[in-house]
UniProtKB/TrEMBL annotation:
Naturally occurring in which organism (per UniProt): Parabacteroides distasonis CL09T03C24
Name used for this protein in its record: Uncharacterized protein
Top-level taxon of the source organism: Bacteria
Amino acid sequence: MRLYIPTCTLNFNNILSSESISPLGFYARRGFGNKRFYPVFANDKEQVILLYSKYPRFKVEENDLENYPMVIEIESEDYKEGFFEKAKEHDGVDTYLCYHTINLNPFHCRIYFNSYQERQGVLVKAEQSLENKFYKLYDANINVKPEEKKTFLGVAKDLFTQSEKDDFLWNSSYANCKIKDESIDVGRDVLLDKIKGFIYCYLIGANSSVSNEIGRLKALSRKLRNTLSAVVNSPDKRPTQAQDDAILNGIREFNEIYSSMDEDTIWNKNLLELKLSDNPQGLSAKDAKNLLQHWGVYDTFCNKLHLRRVYDANDLWSCLEYASPEAFTRVTDSMNRAVRKLEAKENAQREKYAIESLLNVDDDLSLHILDTSYQSSFYRELICSQFKAEYKSVMEKNGVEEPLAQAYNGGMILKNMLGDKWDSNPASAYVGALLNHFQENTAFDLFAIDNDVLSSFAAFCQKGDNIDRLVEYLVQTGFCNYKLAYGIYGATRGFASLPKTFTSILINGNKDYYQSFASNVWRMLNGVEIKDAVLPKTSTNASVIVESQLGSKIIENINNVESKVVGVVNKDVEFENAVQSPKTFMYILENIPNFTRTKAYKNLLQANFAGDIGDYTPEEFKEKIYQTIGQKDLKAQKDKIDIAIKLEAKRQDPEAFLCILDNYFPDQSSNAYKKIAALIKTNGISTSKLSTQTPVTENRFTISGASEGQRKLRPVNATSANFVDDINASNFILSRSYLPKEVRDVLAKKIISFQKDYAPNGYYYGREDSPRTNNNTIKHFINKCTFTKGNNPSWIPSTMENKALLERLKQELYDRYANR
């Protein structure tokens, strides 16, 4: 049975940060996630959630916040029997009550909005939210269920067939039911959040763990990067003797490990061994090499073999030769790419873990660790202690900071488990050194004991206040096994606190893998086996999804309009959403009172601006208009011109739509044309005269894959497998709606000049230190976005927000060009 939960769009990020919805009174008491939840009249009880057997139509309270109705659909069979209580039946609608938190799942949960504008507005905000981890996974489940308006039915009754109504207009009588007077208990919610956090973190850590060699390479690369950074940013830009030794030894060790693992290096080594041994004198490969080097022809010999290009960490010295930030970025990026290549190869050769083989949770929420790769008794006790937050009582009782309390609490658990053996056990000295580290600020050796559980516990105590700091610390110190420290973090901080940057590797990764994982976790935490646990698939029919407010209304019901209209409507939607349409701009000017009499308008008319077929960015479009009018005639009409430009960019005008349609549908007397015109005019707002006195309000509707005022269907499909050869790379950047408009516009221009630098006769073409590989060029482009040199500013401001957005763009570019 489907049940519907009324709520509002202000709660969207809150709900999808924990993948659950709770009674109103739970949020301020539960101590995790967002403490505020916005009620709606149809669901405003403190102790209980109201659910309805039909889709409720309701309004939200008007205030200064942008807020709209939102309805969540769930399947009652996904929950235990008796989870929902039927309270009443009124006018064909059953009202149900739920006194506890309702967990959601991506298999049967649906989220509905009243319009595409509201849906898109919520998703735009979700992009910017760190805590909303599930909006991408639930994308196929997020739908629009528009309300049919009475004024529209009269016009549309001949066009559309009516289906049986499954919704109802809500009023307070549907919610007028007896509610039990029960105290609010959030204890189970808190425990579930921590268990879920532990499960996710443990599995992500298990799948992210690396071999000892990769772990050491990652640690060395961090150490070398930090040392080189200190040198490049020092006043004299020269290394001290200690720094020079650290760099020299680090490079030597890095190359030894890397050459033993890199398949290209191994292939070269085997080929050289074979060719050097194959000589008429019967010399050994070593002697033959020494002889060729003595004659000074060894390099020539190697060149003739066409050996594969391999990474050499000695390239790091070059950044000290020039001592510039750009050189530093180039060499360290090359080093990081080399490590990532080996790590990716290692991960590809290893199967991902099935969660049911690592962990299990009983119906009473008791944790069982099934992973046999380590001795888990202490670890399980520690995790259960973190579930209960026992370290907090240490903080309160002794008045100490959290890191020390964590270390003390874990030490006491281990001491109680070892009993009489505690004093003689190496763990005693290790824990003592950790406590001294926090109390006396003494040095602490993280790997003074050969025990993954204890060293992971110590790492968490040191850097467990933030997941990003913990991840960085584990890599920097050379950890290979991440699951233990990650698991402690999840059990301590809970699932709701995890940022999407950490969980996306699992949630937004392989869908089949996550489907199996999510269904197993649901069984563990909810005690129910989900039937038909299949993730809905999002349609990917087009590279760019156009969701015009007017066009979508026709397309939504296109099957009910004569087939001969289909092609014309699609063509019209293209033009109605075109980037900076001169034709539409002139139409808008003509509707501004008395504007056709002005010299500004006559100049545009004389220049046949309406017939201009050029492609313009918003800035270029405005500049073209100003130049055509001329500075003298522009001065008196600039305010009106600017308003018209804004209206053109906004362009959701029914008459503008029809004006363009006229040019592609010559037979305006046909019934098909009249039906479309009636449909548009009934739903639209008449704009026969546009007032320049009314300020232009921003349109909250965002087109998927294109920015405001940039709505032409620019081709985004890659024309080349190489980033620097792709003609549509600029359009692809323009289609990234999560980037601010000004950032999109700048990068779309800069990518063109950047590609020219890598084209034949370009600045970087043919340079050995700047190969035309996607790995190099994409990273180079992203780095140049925020690179400053001397008094020359960066392309875009080097803010944390921009860097996070650029990191996302970089990953999308890697995916687009298959990281070739």
